[in-house]
Design brief:
605 residues; Rossmann fold; 4 domains; 22 helices; 38% helix; elongated
């Protein structure tokens, strides 16, 4: 067994004898002020008798190996008792792999591409950068020489190996043979430290805090992308495991991967033009039996791959439980890959403060953002329009500089019920492409493994369905028009959710020019309707604005604001008990009394 007397206490390693039996440090050596030295003098610590961390690690492992050998030779047991009393096999000496500076990196980055770059970095001959002082003394290279040459050597090696490293809006990406993959800050720092050592920078210098900070800043500057957009304009592309598929109005083509195109995602399956999806089609026929609605769904699901931002639509999948909506979402998530999807709420994305910038920055490089809640008030309708259209929008990463973002995730909403606030925001109401899942699936029809079967076997076929039924027609037409069945669903949902639409339907009011009612009287009647149905009555100004959004025209006649409308049945009296006003004739601007009557408020505005 291991004798406790054979183990040297950790806190006495430097003050007594090290693991290799070196002589103890002298008093002068122990008083070395390491913290106050600049990073150039840290390399000279070995002159004080101290060892580098790699040498100390090697000594420690060799000492443990020596103690294990001693314990095994003293006892023939092949097992030992642990702290909790259980028995576990003993560790044999041949199972211990010695660590040497040549085989063990200082810090492992954990990224295969970066590890491959590290193995290809060649040392730099720093002797050619030494200078001679005025007194003839040879000086080592300056700090800026170390930084610039190290960064150039790293970037040159990465590009030579076909895996370039680039900086895009304060984020480092490396080419992972099929696409550009982001590198987190800790992995980047560890990679640069080890790369500097392999370039010939001494370990103490490479790991010094000031040197590391300057090295990272210099690397961010030298690796910045020179061109803002490598992707071909007016061309939709889909990056898959076996190549990149390009679509345009003229046709499509399939090409191999190339680091010349700055593509930051990749689907995790191969492109197969002959693949089909019978199970997926079976699901569609059951959940959305209307063919027009299926085609509309295909076009909505093709929006993440559509390059043109002029389609200002955001799909909204609406349906109760067991209607097929969740199955559609699960297949869509697996099709795109969870690493290419975000889940930011619309309220967070439309904020105009720093938190909104952070939320929008998380959409950069993603394909889709799935939001399950739009009940909160939209903070900025202008930002909502910009995000849905995928126009340029301001964003910022934490601790980074602000930038104009483009080519970011499309928005899609999924929920069981539509909140009543939905119809109060015109920016969202006009741009939501609602697809209603209204077919209730019985319990005996539900197959718990149905989604897994589609994911395992039919993802290439589902993609072909989206391309042929959705993306290709979308590129030819250039717009996303809802079919008649979706318009009818929208009108029915509006009546059920929107109190104003329900009141207009009850009164049988429609936009027109046959009648005219004072807005205040109409608002009073609407207030009674809201009280009866326990709804919140909006202010008169909001009420008038909503009427205009629904297509009604408001006029100001005799200092009274009224709304022009049409109703099919005869209403002998209005809300005040008086006869309903006939619609006044609009005043011709060329009329001689136009200016005078406009001052009296009799001219429509």
């Amino acid at each position: 067994m291991i004798n406790s007397n054979d183990i040297t206490p950790v806190d006495t390693i430097q003050s007594a004898t090290d693991f290799n039996g070196a002589k103890p440090l002298t008093e002068k050596q122990t008083e070395c002020k390491c913290d106050s030295m600049p990073f150039e003098k840290l390399d000279r610590l070995t002159e004080c008798g101290m060892k580098t961390p790699l040498e100390m690690m090697d000594d420690a492992i060799n000492n443990v190996r020596r103690l294990i050998e001693k314990s095994v030779s003293a006892s023939p047991l092949t097992e030992h008792h642990t702290i909790d009393g259980s028995v576990s096999p003993a560790i044999l000496p041949e199972q211990i792999v010695p660590v040497t500076p040549q085989t063990a990196p200082i810090i492992s980055c954990g990224v295969d591409v970066l590890d491959n770059i590290l193995t290809k970095i060649e040392p730099i001959d720093w002797s050619q950068y030494k200078t001679t002082g005025s007194n003839g003394e040879t000086k080592p290279p300056s700090e800026k020489v170390y930084l610039l040459r190290t960064v150039d050597q790293i970037l040159y090696t990465a590009k030579r190996e076909g895996t370039p490293i680039v900086n895009h809006v304060d984020r480092i990406y490396h080419y992972a043979t099929t696409h550009y993959d982001p590198v987190n800050e800790m992995a980047l720092q560890n990679f640069l430290i080890e790369a500097a050592v392999r370039c010939g920078v001494r370990p103490y210098t490479a790991m010094y805090q000031t040197f590391v900070e300057k090295l990272i800043k210099q690397f961010m500057i030298n690796s910045a992308r020179r061109n803002s957009n490598i992707a071909v304009p007016d061309t939709s592309y889909i990056n898959l495991r076996n190549g990149t598929l390009f679509f345009s109005k003229k046709g499509h083509r399939f090409e191999t991967h190339s680091h010349q195109r700055f593509i930051r995602y990749r689907l995790h399956f191969d492109y197969d033009p002959k693949a089909t999806a019978p199970l997926w089609q079976k699901h569609l026929d059951r959940a959305l039996p209307n063919p027009d609605k299926q085609e509309y769904l295909a076009k909505c699901l093709a929006l993440p791959f559509y390059c043109d931002g002029r389609i200002e639509k955001a799909p909204l999948l609406l349906g109760q439980r067991d209607t097929g909506k969740s199955t559609t979402l699960l297949v869509l998530q697996e099709l795109l890959g969870m690493e290419n999807i975000t889940t930011e709420s619309l309220a967070a994305l439309t904020k105009s403060d720093t938190q909104g910038d952070y939320a929008r920055a998380r959409l950069d490089g993603k394909l889709l953002n799935i939001a399950s809640d739009i009940s909160a008030k939209i903070n900025d309708e202008g930002i909502t329009k910009v995000i849905i259209s995928r126009e340029r929008v301001s964003a910022r990463h934490p601790y980074g500089e602000g930038f104009d973002m483009r080519n970011y995730a499309r928005l899609i909403f999924a929920m069981n019920d539509l909140p009543h606030q939905f119809f109060t925001d015109a920016a969202l109401t006009k741009r939501a492409a609602i697809i209603l899942f209204d077919q209730q699936i019985n319990a005996d029809e539900i197959d718990t493994g149905f989604v897994e079967k589609i994911i395992a076997n039919e993802l290439p076929g589902v993609l072909n369905w989206i391309l042929t039924v959705g993306l290709v027609p979308l590129l030819k037409i250039g717009r996303l028009d809802p079919p008649q069945c979706c318009l009818e669903d929208m009108a029915r949902i509006r009546k059920d959710v929107d109190p104003l639409s329900a009141w207009l339907a009850e009164k049988d009011y429609q936009p027109g020019n046959a009648h005219w009612i004072v807005v205040k009287e109409a608002h009073d009647d609407f207030d009674k309707f809201c009280r009866r149905n326990r709804n919140v009555t909006p202010a008169t100004k909001t009420f008038t604005k909503r009427l205009r959004e629904l297509g009604y025209t408001t006029d100001c006649i005799n200092h009274s604001i009224g709304v022009r409308l049409y109703y099919s049945h005869t209403i002998p009296e209005n809300q005040s008990g008086q006869a309903a006003h006939p619609a006044p004739e609009p005043l011709d601007p060329d009329h001689e009394d136009y200016f005078e009557r406009s001052l009296n408020g009799e001219v429509p505005f």
